[in-house]
Amino acid sequence: MTDHPEQAGAGRVLALALPTLGVLVAEPLYVLFDIAVVGRLGALALAGLAVGGLVLTQVSTQLTFLSYGTTARSARRYGAGDETGAIGEGVQATWIALVVGGLLAALVEIFAAPIATVIAGDSAIADQAETWLRIAVLGAPLILVTIAGNGWLRGVQDTARPFAYVLAGLAVSAFLCPFLVHGLAVAPQLGLAGSAVANLAGQMVAAALFLTALVRTGVSLRPRRSVIWAQLRLGRDLIARSLAFQACFLSAAAVASRFGAASVAAHQVVLQLWNFVSLTLDSLAIAAQTLVGATLGAGRPTAARTLGWRITRWSAAFAVGLAVVFILGSGVLPHLFTSDGDVIDRIYVVWWFFVALMPIAGVVFGLDGVLLGAGDAAYLRTSTLAAAIAGFLPMIWLSLAFDWGLAGIWTGLALFMIIRMVAVLWRMASGRWAVAGGEVPARRLADEGIASER
Question: Which residues of 61-87 are buried (b: 16+ CB within 10 A; e: fewer)?
Answer without folding.
Answer: ebbbbbbbbbbbbbbbbbbbebbebbb
